[in-house]
């Protein structure tokens, strides 16, 4: 490698470091300058040794405008996975950055159905942390994701995650979204607990009221 080639490699590496630093800070000005100077810089992200892309970082931290510019210039970043098999949508959903979730879904709603190495969807991440508004966007963008809650990870369905982490509004949203489908009641976790057994085990009487209320509303809807 001659001197000119070495200099180019150094310049490219410096640009990439600036890009990642900007993604941490959400510095839109730096991002625009980097893209203007080198329109191919975002295409080179997949060649970096880092498993997280700038979009992963910006999505995790909730830098909305930064995410918008990244997605506008390189929509394929929405499909990139980190070392845990998580896409940016997993991270934004987990943190409850609803506006970022919307942008990611507008770019590629199919990412709702991507499972990480633990077999978890973005919906699982939002549910186990009680991010109700993010959950609404995920379900609205890809209603099929609610039909996949039965597979979940070894802790059971996404509804059981809500019970484990005491997120009752999230549980209510999921039950209502299932529209009276009672199959989720029979799904069991690794300890052979169904949703109802888990609620009783944790003395969460509120879960029983939620299920009863949703059942009554479902019957009323059928009558109407």
TrEMBL record:
SMART domains listed in its UniProt record: ANK (SM00248)
Localization per record: Cell membrane
InterPro entries named among the record's database cross-references: Ankyrin_rpt, Ankyrin_rpt-contain_sf
GO cellular component: a single term: plasma membrane
Keywords: ANK repeat
Stretches forming ANK repeats: 84-116
Protein name: Uncharacterized protein
Species: Vigna mungo
